[in-house]
């Protein structure tokens, strides 16, 4: 009879062995490759953020997660998807946690932004490689490039961070896992600059806590995608 592989503990050293290379990859891609491609072609940096981040950062996160699962002895199956990775059926409780988290993150992030503006004055909330003007005639095609990027972004992060790593970290850190996990997720975003990183603190820690509390990785998808997607669309059409 085939036995189900056991989830292994992932301590601080093992966690950093994933977070640090991912953070370095993000930094190198955004600091060097995206500006180079933009300067060489004359195209907006946001276009190359979609392409480079989707294929060069978030797709590798998915591949890394698959390698980790394979090393653990797990096969890609429905049982692995729902059991090991915890992408389980969404319950009413999960939805309530997700919606409450979205509201709380929205409120706290707004307060953090306002506080930063009081302290340092007006600033661009987006890093240079993400900055762009609202879409205009002849630029709406960027939405077609954004859609597959957005899917890879949310899937890549939620698959590796919440699906693969969080359950293993819980064995090592127990009820405090969300704090360690949040710091690691924040480390991945260092390349975004300290201003945006500070405004991301509510999402980073609140989502980590709620996903750990609900034990459902879909909650992370709902929260991450629910903030990331609509906010981008709003910027595209000049609503914010």
Which descriptor suits the 3D outline? globular
Rg calc: 18 Å
Distance between the termini: 57 Å
Poorly predicted residue ranges: none
Q: How would a crystallographer describe the biggest sheet? A: none
Number of domains: 1
DSSP E strands, number: 0
Beta-strand percentage range: under 5%
Helix/strand order, N-terminal first: HHHHHHHHH
Category from helices, strands and their pairing: mainly alpha
Explain what you see:
With about 240 residues, the protein is an all-alpha fold. It has one domain (about 10-75, about 90-235). The chain has helices at about 10-40, 45-70, 80-85, 90-120, 140-175, 175-190, 195-200, 200-215, 215-235. The longest helix is centred in the middle third of the chain and has 32 residues, at about 140-175. The radius of gyration is 18 Å and the shape is globular. The model has no long low-confidence stretch (mean pLDDT about 95). GO terms for molecular function: endopeptidase activity. This is CAAX prenyl protease 2/Lysostaphin resistance protein A-like domain-containing protein. Keywords: Membrane, Transmembrane, Transmembrane helix.
């Amino acid at each position: 009879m085939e036995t189900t592989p056991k989830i292994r503990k992932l301590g601080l050293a093992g966690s950093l062995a994933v977070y640090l290379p991912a953070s370095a990859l993000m930094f190198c891609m955004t600091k060097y490759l995206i500006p180079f491609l933009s300067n060489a072609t004359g195209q907006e940096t946001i276009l190359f953020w979609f392409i480079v981040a989707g294929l060069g950062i978030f797709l590798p996160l998915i591949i890394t997660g698959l390698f980790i699962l394979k090393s653990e002895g797990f096969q890609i199956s429905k049982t692995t998807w729902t059991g090991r990775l915890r992408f389980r059926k969404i319950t009413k409780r999960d939805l309530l946690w997700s919606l409450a988290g979205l509201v709380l993150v929205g409120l706290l992030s707004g307060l953090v932004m306002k506080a930063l503006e009081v302290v340092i004055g007006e600033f661009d909330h987006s890093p240079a490689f993400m900055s762009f003007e609202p879409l205009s005639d002849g630029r709406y095609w960027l939405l077609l490039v954004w859609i597959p990027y957005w899917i890879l972004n949310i899937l890549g992060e939620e698959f590796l961070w919440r699906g693969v790593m969080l359950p293993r970290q819980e064995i090592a850190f127990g009820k405090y896992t969300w704090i360690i996990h949040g710091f690691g997720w924040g480390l991945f975003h260092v390349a975004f600059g300290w201003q945006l990183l500070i405004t991301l603190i509510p999402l980073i820690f609140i989502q980590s806590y709620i996903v750990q509390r609900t034990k459902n990785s879909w909650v992370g998808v709902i929260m991450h995608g629910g903030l990331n997607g609509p906010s981008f669309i709003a910027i595209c059409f000049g609503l914010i």
